[in-house]
Amino acid sequence: MEPVNLGTAFARFAEHWRPKIVAELNGQEVKLVKVQGVFPWHHHDVEDELFLVWRGRFRIEFRDRIVELGPGEFLVVPRGVEHRTAADEEAEIILFEPAAVRNTGNVVDERFTSPTGIKLERSEN
């Protein structure tokens, strides 16, 4: 049981759209992801997703509306709801979702689909 410093954890990686696991609890994973650009349309058949903005601006697009989020704001996307995420400038997002969820849900896209279970190892400092 050690605290996670979010600023330090986000500073340890640069790639976009590849979530890193920083904690696990009750069958859920807490993941950090840097985003920029537009992610593919997709949905998750059995999982809800929580997106919490740590830094920057982030939007979640639905077929009938767009939700804009800033630092300290979050949104839960219910299972089965088609959506895509986007950020014009780099943003840092915290995700809460069940373990082993594929980030692209029902879609496989070689540019965006991330292997599940990528843990961000703690630094020694």
Brief descriptors of the model:
seven-stranded antiparallel β-sheet, 125 residues, 5% helix, Jelly Rolls, single chain, mainly beta, 41% strand
Question: If you had to describe this structure to a student in words, what would you say it looks like?
Answer:
This protein is mainly β and 125 residues long. The chain has one domain: Sandwich (Jelly Rolls). The protein is built from one helix and seven strands. The chain has one helix spanning 6-11, and strands at residues 20-25, 28-38, 49-55, 58-61, 66-69, 74-77, 84-98. Strands 1, 2, 3, 4, 5, 6 and 7 form a seven-stranded antiparallel β-sheet that branches. The longest helix has 6 residues, at 6-11. The protein is globular, with a radius of gyration of 14 Å. Mean pLDDT is 85; it is low at 104-108.
Computed Rg: 14 Å
Name the shape in a single word. globular
- How many domains comprise the coordinates? 1
CA distance, first residue to last residue: 16 Å
CATH superfamily: Jelly Rolls
Uncertain stretches:
104-108
- The helix-strand sequence is HEEEEEEE
> Biggest sheet: strands, sense, closure?
7 strands, antiparallel
- What is the percent of helical residues? under 10%
Per DSSP, the total helix count is 1
Average pLDDT reading? 85
